Amino acid sequence: MNTNNAAVSHSKNSTAARRKPRQARAQKRHDQILDITAELLDSVGIDGITTISIAKELNISVGSLYHYYPNKVAILCALASRWLNEMTRTISAVDENIAEHSDIASYVKVYTHKIIAMYKRQRGILPLVQAMYAIPEVRQLDEQHDLLMLARLANAFKHFGCKANKTELERIARIYHETTYICSMAIVDQQGRKASRSEADLNQMLNALLANYF
Amino acid sequence: MNTNNAAVSHSKNSTAARRKPRQARAQKRHDQILDITAELLDSVGIDGITTISIAKELNISVGSLYHYYPNKVAILCALASRWLNEMTRTISAVDENIAEHSDIASYVKVYTHKIIAMYKRQRGILPLVQAMYAIPEVRQLDEQHDLLMLARLANAFKHFGCKANKTELERIARIYHETTYICSMAIVDQQGRKASRSEADLNQMLNALLANYF
DNA sequence: ACCTGAACACCGTTCAAGT
DNA sequence: ACCTGAACACCGTTCAAGT
């Protein structure tokens, strides 16, 4: 009794969707399942969700539900993945327009602003994502997503003439990313009041972090 | 089906320990239960823990276990509480010696260092705390703990002559606290390599945050 | 008085039987 | 072929019966 195996007999083999969505109809069902799951997550919380309740809401049987996803974790994973992809897409836009910025400070400002705006828009689902964070598979997804963002950041820093080597670049990007993430969450939490001031404070911290390396 | 009730019939009335530990023997049992739970958390993960496994490890029956704690969540809560208190105690020491510091920068440096050292010492249990974070009661405990730390920080800032009003003080303390927390986690994660440099970067960010208010 | 563990209520997952 | 939902395996919690 010493290795980290969940030791449950329930099948958790794959967390991927079961049938490839060749037909538009099947894809629609997959999406519907995620929509319903998101709604239930909101109304009954992550502990209140049951596979039967999801199936019932869709007017299909549990067995049918298991045609689309191999298990409950897979459904939650797919939902998390959809959210993460949405975020990535939003932020990618900043990077694609990197030519717009003449210096790093300008980039930092827009980057911060976009992230906060996005978190604000998704205010309702943030606690849900947080609740799902307990699921190891979701955590892994999030880490992959982070790696992508870190690579982007490191690239942008180099583009603006950062004088750090590769290892250092990775390290700074990590601190930059984590700081932006946690402060954006805090800013979104504090319901509008003085949020612009907080955003300025975050920018100041980020610029101070980068100052030594430019 | 719209309010956020867990809707389970399991009794979750109180999360406090059941019998007041009047006798030293009962207190010892309470501690033993938490010790065993921490061990199991480490070996089988939070999803692998069962009340029966805890009882078995203690050589008592499940029924007996329920004499000491009203339910499984209460046990995990008590464990989290023990950890949080340990942390609070460690950090309180910095505040009690506030007179040692002539300026805010000196305070920031020691504060950062103590926090990182503490996280390093608890490296093993940090992922466990993170896993427990999914439990709403644990989250609440953590928030209470945070409020305490924030009050401390705001006080210290004022002591060193911070020119911010009460609302602003709270806001800055929050950003300070969150940034320290997330960066310390990141620093501890990166296994020693270049950690001292990261610590310097964190300090620089914190000082930049405070600069406008002193 | 105190402890035990079978029994009950749930929920995730499967698969034999229906269409 | 596809869907159904009773059945099975688990786990948290209780409480009648034992000491």
TrEMBL record, chains A, B:
<feature type="DNA-binding region" description="H-T-H motif">
    <location>
        <begin position="50"/>
        <end position="69"/>
    </location>
</feature>
<keyword id="KW-0804">Transcription</keyword>
<feature type="domain" description="HTH tetR-type">
    <location>
        <begin position="27"/>
        <end position="87"/>
    </location>
</feature>
<keyword id="KW-0238">DNA-binding</keyword>
<dbReference type="InterPro" id="IPR041669">
    <property type="entry name" value="TetR_C_15"/>
</dbReference>
<protein>
    <submittedName>
        <fullName>TetR/AcrR family transcriptional regulator</fullName>
    </submittedName>
</protein>
<dbReference type="InterPro" id="IPR009057">
    <property type="entry name" value="Homeodomain-like_sf"/>
</dbReference>
<dbReference type="Pfam" id="PF17918">
    <property type="entry name" value="TetR_C_15"/>
</dbReference>
<dbReference type="InterPro" id="IPR050109">
    <property type="entry name" value="HTH-type_TetR-like_transc_reg"/>
</dbReference>
<dbReference type="GO" id="GO:0003700">
    <property type="term" value="F:DNA-binding transcription factor activity"/>
</dbReference>
<feature type="compositionally biased region" description="Basic residues">
    <location>
        <begin position="17"/>
        <end position="28"/>
    </location>
</feature>
<dbReference type="GO" id="GO:0000976">
    <property type="term" value="F:transcription cis-regulatory region binding"/>
</dbReference>
<feature type="compositionally biased region" description="Polar residues">
    <location>
        <begin position="1"/>
        <end position="15"/>
    </location>
</feature>
<feature type="region of interest" description="Disordered">
    <location>
        <begin position="1"/>
        <end position="28"/>
    </location>
</feature>
<dbReference type="Pfam" id="PF00440">
    <property type="entry name" value="TetR_N"/>
</dbReference>
<keyword id="KW-0805">Transcription regulation</keyword>
<dbReference type="InterPro" id="IPR001647">
    <property type="entry name" value="HTH_TetR"/>
</dbReference>
